[in-house]
């Protein structure tokens, strides 16, 4: 998400002399200003459009190809291209107009679903190019979004923003996939897919329109430093060494879970409606959990809360070793929804607190956001590589569940790396 160009004093507070506080829409005391609320609205629309169709893209490709390998190659193209796009878009966002990058990402997301709509079942022939188009869209969008997010939030309201963002994501997951599953089953497959892809295009359009009310910060004349992230990692004692390792650990889990869970549910049930119901139930639980954790999580309890979250999102996979069926998948999904906020909220908040912990660091926010994304991409590719190796040897349920468990416990390593930054004094050393 995007952040502001203004420096934040060591200890996490933005200086009172920060220019343009009214422009950012930021408020003291943990409240959210108008720009933060508008950004949440734009992201909410983007999330609904993505949830309507994105949940079913792996299923759609699977039904056309019956190939686990195709799904993996599509996802690989998506991850690698999004990382490269992040790196390249950083220069545009830092030196020119960040809102153009945000809107281009939304437009390209629409173009991706429009292309799938045109190709129909033949989309299976273009798995890697389609993944690259999707990755390009995600790279442009999230590069800009992350910078804007940084600009309009501060350490005292970042947990609240992330909690609300999680609630909106949960709401999207409650409504959109259930509607999609209902339409696909009611309209019997291909007609249903065409309809949900079309609805997604319309909502992406609304998201673009909403973005025109977001304020674009003028550039500060700073040049984009292509290899600043690499320089941070080379420096002994630099806190980004630990934070980068933590984001890699986060990415390993995401690299598999972001596409595999929905596919496993469909294969186990052969019913898109069941996948929609799964998303409805688990997202409702996530909504309540994100709301509760967003209100209760404090700097004083971050460390123990995050540790509990990382352990539990691994343990909830264990029922799948008994049997991969809808009921055990539902237990896994509900458990994950309950505990994932304990992990993801402090993880996201602290990495952006690090970006803004000094005035110079905040000036380099674009480069540091790219560094954060690089860590996620490295982790996702590692997780995906493990998936590709496993499915090239065996595709038994036991092997897939073992893979899920192995990548699902990696966030514990992420907690180990980030734990010095979870204390109440907000110091990065």
From TrEMBL:
Transmembrane segments: 36-62, 68-88, 100-120, 126-149, 161-183, 195-215, 251-269, 275-293, 305-322, 328-348, 369-391, 397-418
Listed Low complexity bias regions: 16-26
Disordered: annotated span: 1-30
Membrane-topology annotation of the record: Multi-pass membrane protein
GO MF terms, alphabetically ordered: transmembrane transporter activity
One GO location term (cellular component): plasma membrane
Name of the protein: MFS transporter, YQGE family, putative transporter
């Amino acid at each position: 998400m995007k952040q502001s160009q203004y420096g934040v004093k060591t200890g996490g507070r933005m200086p009172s002399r920060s220019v343009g506080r009214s422009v950012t829409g930021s408020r003291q005391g943990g409240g959210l200003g108008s720009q933060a609320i508008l950004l949440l609205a734009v992201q909410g629309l983007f999330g609904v459009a993505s949830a309507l169709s994105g949940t079913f893209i792996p299923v759609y490709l699977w039904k056309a190809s019956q190939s686990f390998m195709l799904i993996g190659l599509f996802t690989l193209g998506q991850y690698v291209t999004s990382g490269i796009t992040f790196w390249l878009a950083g220069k545009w966002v830092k030196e020119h107009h960040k809102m153009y990058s945000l809107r281009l990402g939304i437009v390209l997301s629409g173009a991706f679903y429009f292309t799938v709509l045109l190709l129909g079942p033949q989309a299976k022939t273009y798995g890697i190019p389609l993944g690259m188009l999707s990755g390009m869209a995600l790279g442009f969008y999230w590069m800009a979004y992350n910078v804007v997010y940084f600009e309009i939030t501060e350490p005292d309201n970042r947990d609240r923003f992330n909690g609300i963002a999680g609630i909106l994501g949960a709401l999207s997951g409650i409504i959109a996939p259930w509607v999609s599953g209902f339409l696909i089953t009611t309209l019997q497959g291909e007609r249903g897919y065409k309809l949900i892809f079309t609805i997604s295009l319309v909502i992406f359009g609304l998201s673009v329109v909403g973005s025109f009310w977001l304020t674009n910060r003028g550039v500060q004349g700073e040049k984009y430093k292509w290899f600043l992230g690499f320089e941070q990692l080379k420096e002994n004692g630099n806190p980004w060494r630990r934070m980068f390792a933590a984001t890699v650990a986060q990415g390993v889990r995401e690299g598999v879970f972001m596409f595999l869970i929905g596919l496993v549910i469909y294969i186990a049930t052969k019913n898109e409606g069941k996948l929609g119901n799964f998303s409805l139930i688990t997202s409702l639980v996530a909504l309540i959990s994100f709301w509760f954790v967003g209100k209760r999580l404090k700097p004083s309890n971050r460390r123990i809360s995050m540790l509990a979250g990382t352990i539990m999102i691994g343990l909830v996979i264990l029922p799948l070793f008994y049997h991969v069926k809808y009921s055990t998948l539902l237990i896994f999904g509900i458990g994950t929804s309950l505990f994932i906020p304990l992990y993801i909220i402090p993880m996201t908040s602290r990495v952006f607190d690090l970006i803004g912990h000094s005035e110079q660091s905040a000036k380099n926010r674009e480069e540091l956001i790219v560094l954060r994304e690089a860590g996620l991409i490295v982790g996702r590719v590692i997780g995906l590589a493990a998936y590709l190796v496993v499915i090239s040897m065996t595709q038994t349920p036991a092997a897939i569940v073992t893979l899920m468990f192995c990548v699902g416990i990696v966030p514990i390593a992420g907690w180990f790396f980030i734990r010095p930054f979870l204390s109440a004094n907000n110091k990065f050393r």
